[in-house]
Amino acid sequence: MPTKPAGSPGIKYKRIILKLSGEVLRSVKGSEAIDAATLEKICGQVKEIHDLGVQIGLVIGGGNIFRGLQGAKRGVDRTTGDYMGMLSTVINGLAIMDCLEKMGVNTRVQSAIPMNQIAEPFIMRRAMRHMEKDRVVIFVAGTGNPYFSTDTTAALRASEMHADIIMKATKVDGIYDKDPVKHADAVRYDEITFIDALRQRLNVMDSTAFSLCLDNNVPILVFNLSQEHSILDAVLGKKIGTLVHG
């Protein structure tokens, strides 16, 4: 695919924060925390939009390896469990970095917890400069603080990077008025306002992340990552998933 500048006609979102849950890296059978074929497929989609000149910040979760809240249920202290979850995001981030670099995509990993031998420290201006220089910036270790999710990290980084949108790639094709697994008559929204989502108590993101997006007017697009070329369709502004806006 020929490379186009970020201002190319047809691109609706020039700078994005792509939020991936750690679970999307897991194999279909669930036996491997990071499935090589799944990882390559996801990175291929990222490369697809990178080649168009879209500036990409990527926030990855760690739920495929360890989730802090699950640790608490097993007797692990919540703070300790959250730090373990943050370290899981570092493992996932390095896997994505390695895969993207092998595809010829320049990347930088920035960590909210200092670990200089494997990642840069998070520095806002440096991250923005990397994106301007056509590098994919992978944000790991959450916010560096316990009790905050990677959804909150995505909302924070999107606000700091002045991103056009948060693209939350999930295993569902959007936001419904009720659980589509339990209710056959569930209705999917094409778009919804922040206020209406709050009124209906829709589970778009956790409350802290959602409040940040609302306060800073950062739209959120929730879509199904497993659909072919879904990220490309999203940045081109095609009808996909559910858009939450001000």
How many discrete structural domains? 1
Question: How are strands sequenced across the largest beta sheet?
Answer: 4-3-5-2-1-6-10-11-9
Output mean pLDDT: 91
CATH class: Alpha Beta
Q: Any idea what the radius of gyration is?
A: 17 Å
The fold-level CATH name is Carbamate kinase
Q: Give the beta-strand count.
A: 11
Query: What's the total helix number?
Result: 8
> Helix amount, in percent?
25-40%
CATH superfamily: Acetylglutamate kinase-like
Overall shape: it is: globular
Structural descriptors:
246 residues; alpha/beta; 9-stranded mixed beta sheet; 8 helices; 11 strands; 19% strand
Describe this structure in words.
The structure is a single chain. This protein has 246 residues and is an alpha/beta fold. The chain has one domain: Carbamate kinase. The chain is built from eight helices and eleven strands. The protein has a nine-stranded mixed sheet with strand order 4-3-5-2-1-6-10-11-9, sandwiched between helices. The protein has a two-stranded antiparallel sheet with strand order 7-8. Helix 1 crosses helix 3 and helix 5 packs parallel to helix 7. The longest helix has 25 residues. The radius of gyration is 17 Å and the shape is globular. The N terminus is likely disordered.
